[in-house]
Amino acid sequence: MTEARRAQRARYNMSAKGRAATARYKASPKGRAQRARYDARYNVSAAGRAAYARYNVSAKGKARDLARQDRGRVWRQAANAAVRAAVRCGELVRSGACSACGAAGRTEFHHPSYLRKDWLAAEELCRRCHRRWHRANAAIMPEGLG
Ligand SMILES: [Zn+2]
């Protein structure tokens, strides 16, 4: 599966339509049978619980935990805190207009890069342009957790 296809599927699974389809499957005879097989294998037997416990401490299980963590969150929070501080002390000035579409009103500071040196190189965008940019682009993220 390509990355784009995987992302598309994830969006579908989170959508109302996707969640409804999952709920229908789970309530269907086929879905209930699948759940019963899964429970018999992993959840209701001591052997199954032991298998889970082994997996959770294995290298593969730990890698899964790491992959599930939102590694970008720490950097986004740091960059946003730096912007808030700069706005408070007047180093960054909010104009109230989107630098992409020119719309006036509520604006957000946008980070094309979350590298420490770029924390204050934030562009002022309206929510719509901001969302659009992040949907279409991947911001530059520092390696690791820092
Ligand atoms: Zn805009």
Parts with pLDDT < 50 across at least 5 consecutive residues = none
Number of helices: 7
Q: Which sequence of SSEs, written as H and E, runs from N to C?
A: HHHHHHEEH
Helix content: 55-70%
Largest pleated sheet: 2 strands, antiparallel
- Rounded to the nearest angstrom, the distance between the terminal CA atoms is 31 Å
How are the strands ordered across the major sheet? 1-2
Mean pLDDT reading:
89
Strand content: under 5%
| Rough outline | elongated
Q: What Rg do the Cα atoms give?
A: 22 Å
**Unique ligands:** zinc ion
How many runs of DSSP E, i.e. beta strands? 2
Structural class: mainly alpha
Number of domains: 2
Topology:
Layout (H helix, E strand, L loop, with lengths): L2 H12 L1 H12 L1 H15 L2 H12 L1 H10 L3 H17 L19 E3 L12 E3 L1 H10 L10
Antiparallel strand pairs: 1-2
Bound molecules: zinc ion (ZN).
The site of zinc ion has 8 residues, from helix 7.
